Amino acid sequence: MPKTNLDQLGINALRVLTMDAIQKANSGHPGMPMGMADVAYVLWTRHLKHNPRDPRWPDRDRFVLSAGHGSMLLYSLLYLTGYPILLEDLKQFRQWDSRTPGHPEYEIDLGIETTTGPLGQGFANGVGMAMAAKHLAARFNRPQFPLFDHYIYAIVSDGDLMEGVSHEAGSLAGHLGLDNLIYFYDDNHISIEGDTQVAFTEDVPARFRAYGWHVQEIDGHDFDAIDAAIRTAKQTPGQPHLIACRTHIAFGSPHKHDSEKAHGSPLGEEEIRLTKEALGWPSLEPFFVPPEVVAHYRLAIPAGEQAEAAWQELMTQYRQAYPEEAAELHRRLDGQLPAGWEKAVPHFRLDSPPLATRVASQQVLNSLAQAIPELVGGSADLAPSNKTYLAGLGDFQQDSPEGRNFHFGVRELGMGGILNGMALYGGLRVFGGTFMVFSDYMRPAARLAALMKLPVIYVWTHDSIYVGEDGPTHEPVEQVMSLRAIPNLTVIRPADANETAAAWQYALEQRHGPVALALTRQKLPVLPEAADKAWEGVARGAYVLSDSPLNRLDLLLIATGSEVVEALAAQKLLAERNVGARVISMPSWENFERQPVFYKLSVFPEHITRRLAIEAGATLGWYRYVGRKGAVVGIDHFGASAPYQKLREEFGFTPENIVEQALKLLTE
């Protein structure tokens, strides 16, 4: 169907709304939305399968604006097609408590599929969504019942493709042949500092062809070419798709066309007037859109309702033909875990041999995987070390998408963004593992998971200097403490196998934020003191593991992870010196801070001011718990290459040194 005058008005409406909203806010990025208006219009009016009246419809296409700085393009599309974004919301762009913040923030009921803006993260999110769709289709689709049959679309910018995360996620997507992935590359040749030639001269289409993507190169302002490219992508199986669209930033602006000045600044009232005239826009009134244009966009509502009704009818028939699968799918999409799954959480016997918490985690994870079929995940090429492999449950590959083990390769940065996309998609509980020191590579995605309140589980092992012989490059010092600084990320550093089991149970019970498990490389004993207390203790964040063996309380010993056993040994030595010490296991600061005051005071009595924290990591932050009269046994320098037992002695994490530091506190 050739382009009509109404089509052209619909395209220009996106440009006009963008210019006006950004001018009113006196802040924003008009260039990209104006340049990609043609592509967005063709996609949203001719191809995107969605229902503005039900943004949660499982079989909808997903649209990711990875170039989140162009948020007004997304907000304009949502308003025009009938989502709960109103014209008044566009007028409140970038203002306090508005639905239209500077960069899109995940709100599925508004049609916003993910939080974007940190460039490249949306690219990786889309790859994760495509992987989740493939996995769920393999699990639930049946002949004549294509319940999951849709595409993941994204608009990506030069900046997205410069960021390393796009390289990692793009490489994996090509390996997996994710043919449900269609990305539009906004090739406008402009970055903030000017022409992209100043720093970005690679052959992007060749790069993606090398990854194994199907690539098309088109004029991003050619209506028919855009439409044809999307159709070709849909008809080409076995590869993800990149449509490289040569566009012009601030298209239509007489003086800002192809200028970096249009990237991140309002055009100005006079330039907007000239642009509207150049586009042949029928009114200079701000935010004016002809009624026939709105009506045309709003055809998405009946079309979406019809498409969803057909899917619901298919689902009704599926429920009759496959009642068990239908019930499981409904449960998964509702975010509910199987009834009685907690029974699969192991309780470790006191006569169990010492084992690293990463090994305990492996046993817990594999037991839970049998009870929770939606539990899937993998590692950044470290599954044998992270102990994250799900035995007997298959590998997710192009020819085996039903597999539950995801191999991310040495791509921590990409893995983080992909895990977010999988979690956003729904129907899965996802985990990903690497060494704790490499959590730094995952930090951008972990921060966004926390911002979006996604229930991603991070399995970060080798959690301290006790990595040992690998040396300071692989020995985390500041990582655990720095992760505690991320709002809404729950960090749990368990002391033994039972605390590890409790940590997994807690993590799976959470639906409104990510959980990080910090696990040891070295073996630890199963603590008798934690056998019955661990489950409530981990959920509360800190608990009295062992109270003073004397008739008085002189000192609090506060420890996490592998240092708890040292604190218990020190408690006994102090008792021999007639010092009454309480050992507090504190696996999670975040959980402890959520407790009522009376509970906090029951663990940390106010009148006991001599407090010693013990953790094989940075001391920064511990003084909020030990106070002015307390101290910390920690490490504020890098580690060294040596057996971990030697590091323990040299860096003072022995019961003897803990006793020495405790006695100093008591005599000051």
Short key terms for the protein model shown above:
Rossmann fold, elongated, 20 strands, alpha/beta
Describe this structure as you would to a colleague.
- The structure is a single chain.
- With 668 residues, this protein is of the alpha/beta class.
- The chain folds into three domains: 5-304, Rossmann fold, CATH 3.40.50.970; 341-528, Thiamin diphosphate (ThDP)-binding fold, Pyr/PP domains (Rossmann fold, 3-Layer(aba) Sandwich); 537-667, Rossmann fold, CATH 3.40.50.920.
- Helix content is 42%, strand content 13%.
- The strands form five sheets. Strands 10-9-11-12-14-13 form a six-stranded parallel beta sheet, with helices on both faces. A five-stranded parallel beta sheet has the order 1-2-3-7-6, sandwiched between helices.
- β9 (375-379), α16 (383-386) and β10 form a beta-alpha-beta unit.
- α8 packs across α17 and α17 packs parallel to α18.
- The chain is elongated and about 90 Å long.
